[in-house]
Amino acid sequence: MQDLSFQHYLLGLFAVANNIPAIPIYLNLIQGLSPAERNKICNVASLAAFLTMIISMVTGMGILSFFGISVSAFRIAGGLLLLATGFSMMNSVKKSIKEAGANTLAKSISTAIIPIAIPLTTGAGTMSTVILFTQDMNHFQYLELKLLSAIVVMSVINYLAFRYAPKLVNLVGPTGMDVMTKIFGLITIALGVQFILTGLGGAFPKIL
């Protein structure tokens, strides 16, 4: 069993479950909405991302067992996915979001779930990361509490980023957002490489 720290879990989630890629679409979505409606969209997007991580934590290993997928194989696959995600973030370019017409509240709530919460905030890379974090727990409650605490803290960070997104963009500017995305992309690549190395070590213990 690997005794991982709370900081390890939080840093891993911070790299793959931050909502920076979703902020441009989110800002476009809340245009023309009242403060109460904006708060509702923020709550829906944050809650959907939180539930995605919790469901991955609770059911992830069971799903792997059901399909007969080894943890080593999933680590390698998850690592490759994180590499692709990280390189995509490193090569990201600033895009302008075009207006799609007037947003109704129902349409905005739907958009807050997909694609803002899933997959822009918590996508396949996030789900893979959470599932792999749960692999070494073996029902040790103190490790489960560490991961759960990291998920809660990450969800609060995402909520605050959504809530204060207009001020955040004004503060750091488009260039600052681009730099932050690339930094998180580099961390994601490093996390993916570590997952692949661990998976290869589990699959070929005598070679590695």
Notes on the protein architecture:
The protein is an all-alpha fold. The protein has one domain. It is built from eight helices and no strands. It is globular and about 60 Å long. Mean pLDDT is 83; it is low at 95-102.
Describe this protein with a few key phrases:
mainly alpha, about 210 residues, about 0% strand, 8 helices
Helix content: over 70%
Radius of gyration, Cα only, in angstroms?
18 Å
Shape by Cα distribution: globular
Number of helices: 8
Strand content: under 5%
Structural category: mainly alpha
Largest sheet, if any? none
Average pLDDT confidence is: 83
- Which runs of at least 5 residues are low in confidence (pLDDT < 50)? 95-102
* Tally of discrete structural domains: 1
Distance between the termini: 19 Å
Number of strands: 0
Helix-strand pattern, N to C?
Answer: HHHHHHHH
Topology, please?
Elements lengths: L5 H11 L6 H7 L5 H33 L3 H20 L14 H17 L2 H11 L6 H23 L1 H39 L5
Question: Care to give the gist of this entry?
Answer:
With 208 residues, the protein is mainly α.
